[in-house]
Design goal:
- The protein is mainly α.
- It folds into 2 domains: 34-76, no CATH class; 98-312, MetI-like fold (Orthogonal Bundle).
- The protein contains 13 helices and no strands.
- Helix 7 crosses helix 8 and helix 10 runs antiparallel to helix 13.
Length: 313
Amino acid sequence: MWSLFARRLLQLVPTVFLLSLIIFSLQHLLPGDPALILAGENPDAETVAAIRAQYHLDQPIFVQYLYWVQGVFSGDLGVSMRHGQPVASLILLKLPVTLQLAVMGIVIALLLGITGGVISALKRNTPVDYVTNVVSLAGISIPNFWLGIMMILFFSITLRWLPASGYVSPGENWQMNLATTIMPAFVLGCSIAGVIMRHTRGAMIQALQSDYVRTARAKGLSEWVVLFKHAMRNALTPIITLGALEFGALLSGAVLTEQIFTIPGFGKLIVDAVFTRDYPVVQGVVLVTALFYIILNLLADIGYILVNPRLRS
């Protein structure tokens, strides 16, 4: 297990290097000059030149890349051209908000998806199975922005149970924090729940038809032991992969949901940075998101081994 973990860590080095090259190169393909945007209307040549010199925009792209990589290794992601604050500080300010939404969303998705998938597999080709398939397809098909608007209309405007928008930190008021995040978290988790439900159903059907499950039943084990100790344990392997990837997608793809519910998270930060050509913020946010994906994949590999002992060899 430890040798596998060490090999995975070594594979991360070229992956992170390649990601840094892609992130930095693609950012500079965006149209527009950030120096002109920062200088405002009718800027003079000296102001534009000073801004370019301050952010090394007057240097070749390769030199700019070296400056950026040097800062990343020292923990400095640069300074925001728009806010004038360190990018790391902006990320640390916004990331916990999106991270909370992502954690709540993936928990909702796993609870609904795994439960529905297991029930659908056990009740295969019955009305219960058909209903769960319809529900999962609806969850996948319904756009997040439409579901968010409908939830605001029903729970906030009609019933007045929950606030329509805004965000309150858990340290300030945990009850209001839960009230302001439960709807966007459900919107984020709903579509993922449909995907997990269908994958769980397929994995459970395959596991329930396997030889080791038939052997466990022939030994006289109870159906609950057969289901959760034998079938479920082996069916979890693809779900771990899917859960890790979808959790990373929640961190990077919560833009629309955060805009609908006016939540000041990671999504709003990256959208504002792209529109204002704030290179350091875009590069820092994308790099952090990519690192999250890499770490989640590493944790998924470890999860395989913990769930399925046959993979330890």
